[in-house]
Amino acid sequence: MDSIDNLVIERARQWHAEGHCVWLCTVLSTFGSSPRPPGSLLVARSGTEYAGSLSGGCVEEAFLAQLDAGQFTADAQIVLYGDGAQESQRLQLPCGGVLKVLVECLPVASAVGEHLDALQQALSRQQSVLRRVRLSGGRCLDFDPGPGATVEILGDEVHVRLGPVVTLILAGASPVARYCAQFATALGFRVLACDPREEAVQHLEGTGLSLIRELPSVYIARHGCHTNTAVVALTHDPRIDDLAMMEAVRTEAFYIGVMGSERTSANRAKRLQRVGGLSEPDIARIHMPIGLNLGSKTPPEIALAVMADILRVRTGTGGQAMRSVSGDHCYPRY
Length: 334
Description:
- Pfam families: XdhC_C, XdhC_CoxI.
- This protein is an alpha/beta fold.
- The protein has helices at about 5-15, 60-70, 110-125, 175-185, 215-225, 240-250, 260-275, 280-285, 300-315, and strands spanning about 20-30, 40-45, 50, 75-80, 100-105, 130-135, 140, 150-155, 155-160, 165-170, 190-195, 210, 230-235, 255-260, 285.
- A hairpin with a 4-residue loop joins strand 6 and strand 7 (about 140).
């Protein structure tokens, strides 16, 4: 999940603890153009107070108007927005898309509070959970969900898998890392930067990330990486970058990448095999050269190429990635 959806869970818990009935909405499926994927969340406590997003705005407006009209009194129901919706709930989306949304009415009750508390605590511990919502009433959490689709409708039950907030670990500080932090934050990533060098971390001041003043390899070895983690090494210093790669490949990170030209990357691969003992499959997991080939030269352009490739991998976009072939001179050195 991204930081927007994490905020939704926190806000739902807060409003419920204050004694408010809240409505929790989950995107179940989309057809056609849709800015928010299945699993996206929105919570509301009235027709004017809400957090999160289901679409680009049109679906939110329709839902809030319906909420004000008192249409959502059931414990849980599935609502269709767009072509094929019932006349009473018809909304012609400008993009021509169709959204199927689970709408839950969460009353002020101890069982609901316990459910939200357990969900928030699990996510704060970077755990993956499976919410089982029965349309006939009731919900529970499975703390060992295993692999599977983000959303599944199984008869009377809707299963929604929620994972840790997608995280970007910056292995070392640099001007490129600074711009990656800015782009990643805008994309809803949680951003961590690991670097013990006082003279280097100044590049990350004012970016709003969490700064960890130790070697990234040490941090990764101690804490690991969950499946919603991307690790990028952007310093061009093998003492930092190589060690970070050696630890990152031992984790479940969905993206691992390191900056450098084709020549630098080839030399690094040999070094990681010879010195680090990495296998061919380990090397294959590392995106090097990192990023899409956008002709990037400046730090913000390189950061854009890096984040674009991370997003490509995270969303499962098909097609062969265009690897960066920029020369060593294009990258800042430390």
